[in-house]
């Protein structure tokens, strides 16, 4: 998975085929994913060449269209009197194939207002896949001519490459059992779903330096994805897999902050303070995370534990957790 040059558009998946980087699918929670009906070309055995992915400023006018690839060009037909709304037409071979109004200079304009997208059916299998996206920075209505500045262009070929169904797969979007951790991607190998990457909408992505194992041709077995409530005490550790256990060392006098240590095979490998009992604390404040290098992927979250509440007692301290995530620290190569 890699981000668009214009990062606000989200991310996309590519496949390396005979040394060429080819578009495979739009990643979830991104503007171009939301603008497409079908988002994954590999489901029907197709890929597409990436023609343009840039963030360079370009100015074009009502007399000089914005030139794209494969015979497409985007032309300004008119700009309203306030200079906010731009009526554009997409042409191919001199014929108009699409038209739209974008509003780059309107006060409060969002990404949708500023982005022109063009979708087509690719190969008769995928419906309404975005093949062209242009992000408008601003617009201006002049006395002699109108002009607009764009600062992001994306284009893939409208002639897909046939690869055969099942020959190439892209990771699939999944929900954590703990909803406020966001999402992650899995990839099937030998009939089992393996962890592939963290989606960029949650704290486990934010904590990981390199959240995508696929970029390093790695996958990892999912050991825990559990939203069940469990209580453990200062005298009884929370047992995890692969020799790990999480122990409560102390809880502050208010019963809000928990000092925990992570042990592997009886040896302390990490320690952290968690705001387990703080009212209104964000998910990342109530989540213990442990990261480690996996192959060439640096600082990937392999363990996450979400604390629901904590209690300081006279004889022992205790905490209730309601989310555990663990992936194997020994990845497989793909």
Shape category: elongated
What is the CATH homologous superfamily assignment of the largest domain?
DU1608 C-terminal domain
Name the structural class: mainly beta
CATH class of the largest domain: Mainly Beta
Mean pLDDT: 91
Q: What is the CATH architecture assignment of the largest domain?
A: Sandwich
Low-confidence stretches: none
> What is the C-alpha radius of gyration, as a whole number of Å?
25 Å
Query: Fraction of residues in helices?
Result: under 10%
CATH topology of the largest domain: Tick-borne Encephalitis virus Glycoprotein, domain 1
- Can you summarize the main beta sheet? 9 strands, antiparallel
Describe this structure in words.
This protein is mainly beta. The protein has 2 domains: 2-162, DU1608 C-terminal domain (Tick-borne Encephalitis virus Glycoprotein, domain 1, Sandwich); 172-333, DU1608 C-terminal domain (Tick-borne Encephalitis virus Glycoprotein, domain 1, Sandwich). Helices cover 4% and strands 55% of the residues. The protein has 3 helices and 26 strands. Strands 1, 2, 3, 4, 5, 10, 11, 12 and 13 form a 9-stranded antiparallel β-sheet that branches. Strands 14, 15, 16, 17, 18, 23, 24, 25 and 26 form a 9-stranded antiparallel β-sheet that branches. A 4-stranded antiparallel β-sheet has the order 6-7-8-9. The chain is elongated. The two termini are 15 Å apart.
């Amino acid at each position: 998975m890699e981000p668009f040059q214009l990062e606000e558009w989200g991310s996309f998946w590519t496949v390396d085929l005979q040394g060429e980087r080819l578009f495979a699918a739009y990643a979830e929670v991104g503007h171009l994913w939301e603008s497409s009906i079908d988002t994954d070309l590999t489901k029907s055995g197709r890929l597409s060449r990436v023609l343009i992915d840039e963030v360079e400023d370009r100015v074009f006018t009502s007399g000089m269209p914005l030139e794209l690839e494969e015979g497409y060009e985007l032309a300004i037909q008119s700009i309203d009197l306030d200079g906010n709304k731009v009526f554009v037409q997409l042409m191919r071979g001199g014929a108009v194939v699409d038209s739209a109004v974008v509003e780059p200079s309107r006060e409060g304009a969002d990404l949708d207002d500023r982005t022109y997208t063009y979708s087509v059916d690719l190969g008769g299998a995928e419906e309404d896949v975005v093949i062209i996206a242009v992000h408008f920075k601003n617009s201006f209505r002049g006395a002699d001519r109108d002009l607009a500045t764009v600062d992001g262009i994306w284009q893939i070929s409208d002639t897909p490459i046939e690869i055969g169904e099942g020959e190439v797969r892209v990771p699939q979007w999944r929900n954590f059992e703990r909803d406020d951790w966001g999402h992650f991607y899995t990839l099937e190998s030998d009939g089992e779903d393996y962890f592939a990457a963290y989606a960029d909408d949650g704290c486990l992505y934010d904590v990981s330096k390199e959240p995508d194992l696929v970029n390093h041709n790695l996958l990892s077995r999912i050991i825990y994805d559990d939203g069940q409530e469990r209580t453990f005490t200062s005298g009884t550790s929370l047992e995890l897999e692969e020799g790990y256990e999480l122990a409560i060392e102390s809880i502050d006098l208010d019963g809000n902050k928990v000092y925990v240590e992570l042990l592997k095979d009886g040896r302390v490998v990490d320690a952290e303070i968690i705001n387990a009992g703080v009212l209104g604390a964000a998910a990342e404040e109530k989540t213990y995370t442990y990261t480690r290098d996996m192959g060439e992927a640096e600082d990937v979250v392999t363990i996450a534990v979400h604390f629901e509440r904590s209690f300081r007692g006279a004889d022992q301290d205790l905490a209730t957790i309601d989310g555990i995530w663990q992936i194997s620290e020994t990845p497989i190569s793909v």
